[in-house]
Amino acid sequence: MITNNRLTEAQYNQNFSDIHPMFETKDAALVAANKCLFCYDAPCTKACPTSIDIPKFIKQITTENIKGSAHTIFQSNILGAGCGKVCPVEKLCEGSCVYNLMEETPVQIAKLQRYSTEKAIEENWKLFERKPSNGKKVAIVGAGPAGLSCAHVLAREGVEVTIYEKESKGGGLMTYGIAAYKVTPAFCEDEVNYIISIGGIDIKYNQTLGKDFSLDELQKNYDAVYLAFGIGTINKLNIPGEDLDGVEDAIHFIYNIRTNEFKNISVGDRVAVIGMGNTAIDAATQSKRLGAKEVAMVYRRTEAEKTCTQHELDIARLDGCATLWLAAPKEIIGDSGKVKALVCDVMQLGEPDASGRPTPIPTGETFTLEVDMIIKATGQKPYTALVEQIGLENNKGKIILQSDKASTNVKGVFAGGDAINGGKEAVDAVQAGKDGANAILNFIF
Ligand code: SF4
117 CA distance to ligand 1 centroid (A)? Predict the structure, then answer.
């Protein structure tokens, strides 16, 4: 049965409390920071898409220069606080820390990054001076990581920035698309407010491109436009029964959790989550934490080809979510219009496909899972119709950039983030925003 209010208030609070608690004392942070070897040519910095000078900010913590440390982080990544919570650090900075080569646990880079940046946000430290206004105006579509990062670089240079955001809050997927136990909506709001406190950034909320305003209007009224509107809904499964009651899109499911009280979110007794990326993990773990009795993650390849990180998979397993490898959804069976079961093909792996991963091939055998809710997390679709309508060169809806990796085929229109790459990490979007801002500064001056 799909129902809400399965748990007590205390249980919801416990299940959704921060999965990575902060250092309990200053000494604990100092001990963690002093573990760093301050490597010359630091591999951790090279592994960070925004190239944060990690040994420098950790060194600043060891000398109790927390303001300087936060400045070092924000200079490269203005969303450094949020990224410290949501980055898959085991495949980025921490995964590259030299301690791994010694078979020791790496330096706690993300936790140290949060130590400095959360303090900066809490204390509202003014770490950047905005140059006097130079009369140039730039419009940004989307107040997610790419848009905010672009806006901050431009605002620092004295540009007047207006961000048009379709939701009622900024932060993009940080605010609306990530498990609540990793980053809370309140934290995201504080982070957005901190970023725009530099001045010269006006966010207009509830404004959708193609509905409330057009690209033509932006081109007429601004010196340049940056498009950072992300990607849309989940790909369809294209199997019988997909329209039954109880089939849910993971992005929609997570959005509801982010914008409602936990007790108001409905979840099934037995949930199947289709997919094995980080969004699938967020949907599975949160289903369990909302009180689902059984959650199974269904993936058509093997564990070796999963797209989530091992750390994410470990969270799902610790939450009691089962994993079904080499299983592809074939049909959803209903009863009185509601989901009753999921029939899966048993797969085997064949030759590599275009992505380089082995192609899953049905063996002819099937099995049936008794479920009452199915959550689809099988990759998101770009906004193809919108991109076509505004005349941008694209590859199946993903905007194609020119050789500077920031401008589109339309003069004065730049783009970055998930609308280009089809969905990467928040930290990649932050770097795209910086690249976009630099290309725009070259264009307008
Ligand atoms: Fe410090 Fe590890 Fe980076 Fe070396 S690789 S600078 S030890 S965090």
Answer: 19
